[in-house]
């Protein structure tokens, strides 16, 4: 291994560095900052004795993200309204290559938010990046046995959501429901929206106190449909509405623009052919990268 990191080698591993930070933090901006920090640290370090560069880079990113997550938890306790992860553009919409797995979907990222920082880091490093528990323990500051327990608890929480007795949509079904949702919203068709929404649907909006948004979850398919159309009439009374399908977190999503500027990103959790959860990111700080 050369003693310095050249640009070509860094480019090969950048997606893993960013991916580790994003899975731990759920923030594109913070993950980008940590990625830049890792690049600077690696560029200035003597890597002669590093046997596995990818693991070394991911570990550096995880250690920094772990510190950031612990302080972020305190900030999120005072966050205005529901907190949702920043939409991560993937597939053809991504400016840089992105590693995609279930841990970057909105539904799973919300589960990761419920874990302790140690559980989240252990799950990401071991299950997503294949680091042995001895290395995970080095990041967490405990024993390999403790790291294994953290990952096991986290895995059970994620599995409990994944294995619920409902049929999750495949990609084609997800895209079909998203297209129907988009058409119903743009047409103002209340009946069509009610048919698309599960009776137990939950609608979460993240405005972060920066824009007007519901500060508590809205529940019930009919209620959610009525709120969606009422909000649309207010938002688009004087400016044109456009929308386009994007890929965010490895899943089809909807980018809505108002007057040509990003207004929100909608991601859907579709089960049994209907929308069980609608997550809308309105906070402009979380849309800057779009």
Automatic annotation (TrEMBL):
Residue ranges of the TM segments: none
Start and end residues of each RNA polymerase sigma-70 region domain: 11-73
GO terms, biological process: DNA-templated transcription initiation
InterPro entries cross-referenced by the UniProt entry: ECF_Sigma-70_Domain, NTF2-like_dom_sf, RNA_pol_sigma-70_dom, RNA_pol_sigma70_r2, RNA_pol_sigma70_r4_t2, RNA_pol_sigma_r2, RNA_pol_sigma_r3/r4-like, WH-like_DNA-bd_sf
The RNA polymerase sigma factor 70 region 4 type domain, residue ranges: 107-157
A GO MF label: DNA binding
Key words of the record: Sigma factor, Transcription, Transcription regulation
Top-rank taxon, per record: Bacteria
Keyword DNA repair attributed: no
Keyword Transcription appears in the UniProt entry: yes
Subunit structure: Interacts transiently with the RNA polymerase catalytic core formed by RpoA, RpoB, RpoC and RpoZ (2 alpha, 1 beta, 1 beta' and 1 omega subunit) to form the RNA polymerase holoenzyme that can initiate transcription.
Family per similarity comment: Belongs to the sigma-70 factor family. ECF subfamily.
Protein name: RNA polymerase sigma-70 factor, ECF subfamily
Originating species: Streptomyces harbinensis
């Amino acid at each position: 291994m050369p003693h310095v990191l050249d640009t070509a080698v860094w480019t090969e591993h950048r997606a893993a560095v960013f991916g580790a930070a994003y899975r731990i933090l759920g923030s594109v901006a913070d993950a980008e900052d940590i990625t830049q920090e890792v690049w600077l640290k690696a560029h200035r370090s003597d890597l002669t004795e590093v046997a596995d560069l990818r693991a070394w880079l991911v570990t550096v990113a995880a250690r920094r993200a772990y510190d950031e997550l612990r302080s972020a938890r305190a900030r999120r306790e005072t966050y205005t309204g529901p907190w949702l992860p920043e939409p991560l553009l993937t597939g053809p919409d991504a400016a840089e290559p992105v590693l995609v797995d279930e841990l970057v979907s909105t539904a799973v990222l919300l589960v990761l938010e419920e874990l302790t920082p140690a559980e989240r880091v252990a799950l990401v490093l071991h299950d997503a990046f294949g680091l042995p528990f001895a290395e995970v323990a080095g990041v967490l500051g405990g024993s390999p046995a403790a790291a294994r327990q953290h990952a096991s608890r986290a895995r059970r929480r994620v599995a409990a959501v994944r294995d619920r007795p409902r049929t999750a949509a495949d990609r084609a079904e997800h895209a079909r429901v998203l297209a129907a949702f988009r058409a119903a919203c743009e047409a103002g068709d209340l009946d069509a929206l009610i048919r698309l929404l599960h009776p137990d649907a939950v609608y979460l909006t993240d405005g972060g106190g920066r824009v007007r948004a519901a500060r508590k979850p809205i529940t019930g398919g009919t209620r959610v449909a009525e709120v969606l159309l009422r909000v649309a009439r207010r938002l688009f009374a004087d400016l044109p509405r456009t929308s386009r399908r994007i890929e965010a977190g490895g899943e089809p999503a909807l980018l809505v623009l108002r007057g040509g500027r990003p207004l929100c990103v909608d991601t859907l959790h579709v089960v049994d052919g209907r929308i069980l959860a609608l997550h809308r990111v309105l906070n402009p700080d979380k849309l800057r990268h779009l």
